[in-house]
Amino acid sequence: MSNSSIVIRDLYKSYGEVQALGGIDLEIPNGQIFGILGPNGSGKTTLLKIITSIMEPTSGLVVVNGINAGENPMKVKTIVGYVPETPTLYESLTPLEFLGFVGSIRKVDHNILSERINRFASAFEIEDKMNNFIGSLSFGTKQKVAIISAFIHDPEIIVLDEGMNGLDPRSAKILKNLLLDFVSAGKTVLFSTHVLEVAESVCHRMAIIYKGNIVDVGTLKELRESAGEKDAKLEDIFLNATGDSDLKPVIESLKETLSK
Ligand code: ADP
Ligand code: MG
After folding, report:
1. Contact yes or no for 242/215 (Cβ under 8 A)
2. 124 near 171, Cβ under 8 Å?
3. Residue 217: CB partners within 8 Å, gap ≥ 6?
4. CA of 254 to the centre of ligand 2 (A)
5. What are phi and psi of 52, to 5 degrees?
6. Of 6, 53, 135, 223, which is least surrounded by CB within 10 A?
């Protein structure tokens, strides 16, 4: 387990009659951007909420940097920074106030906090928006504020649920570089997406999830090899991994989500 930051064993989650996760086994190494790739409804958000200890599984084991999430969810929360699929921000605060608030809850030293907020605001090119009400900001700028808030306590692990949502190409590149810096320090990024190109451009390794099960794991190269085609595109690999009988709905779901 030494070089795995996240270990998941036999993880199940049901919402009433709906089984969202059907026995996930996964080891996520540190020092990498690890992708969870799958169409809408495949269980990505559920998996990330359980890993961040926001939600309890029906059964199974989750260990995050050696901490058993079932036994010590609060401790997991202190070492994880999480960007939810739909972030909740305080619309009547400014980004400066909101990030200051998050930093004080996270018990970040005052001087370090100011320095960090400035550095991230500058990296994301939103210095001129730091004193506007969050409610008046564009979707993309709100997403940047949510991302900065996940970094504010210098966590060990960053979890982004569809983290590229709402970001223009330039901002997406800034985020990617930020994540690369983060993992080059030996930390871990877990990144869910339903967009194949995003997984392909951002993630070192990825797991393909479909109907609550992991159907393949590896680098893009390994996934290509397991698909048996040297030059297979991720889309072919994905369709191959999820099985021919399910081809049609998957393609439709992907087309639908890709065109959003
Ligand atoms: P993804 O993030 O990949 O789109 P989710 O984890 O959101 O997938 O959802 C997985 C499955 O669980 C879907 O069938 C979804 O409808 C269902 N689900 C998710 N959240 C709830 C909930 N709060 N109550 C009932 N069903 C849910
Ligand atoms: Mg989701």
Report:
1. yes
2. yes
3. 26, 205, 206, 207, 208
4. 14
5. -80, 0
6. 135
Indicate the pTM of the whole model: 0.90
pLDDT mean across residues, the chain: 89
CA distances to 127, 193, 234 from 200, in Å: 30, 10, 7
Give which of 259, 240, 260 is closest to 250, Cα–Cα.
240
Q: Give the residue, 104 or 230, on which the prediction is more confident.
A: 104
Q: What is the pLDDT of residues 76-117, one digit of tens each?
A: 999 999 999 998 899 999 999 999 999 999 999 999 999 999
User: Buried b / exposed e across 135-171, counting CB within 10 Å, b at 16+?
Assistant: eebeeebbbbbbbbbbbbbebbbbbbbbbbbbbeeeb
The amino acid present at 222, given as its one-letter code, is E
Domains and CATH numbers, the chain: 4-218 (3.40.50.300)
Residues in contact with ligand 1 by the CB-under-6-Å rule are: 15, 18, 20, 38, 40-46
Q: List residues bridging with 83 in a β-sheet.
A: 160
With CA atoms as reference, report the closest residue to 188 among 65, 43, 70, 14. 65
How many angstroms is it from 48 CA to the middle of ligand 2? Answer: 9
CA of 156 to the centre of ligand 2 (A): 22
Q: Of all residues in the chain, what percent are helix, strand and coil, respectively (each to 5)?
A: 45, 25, 30
Q: Whose CA is nearest to atom 17 of ligand 1?
A: 20
State yes or no: pLDDT of 3 exceeds 50: yes
Question: d(Cα 247, Cα 252) in Å, to the nearest integer?
Answer: 9
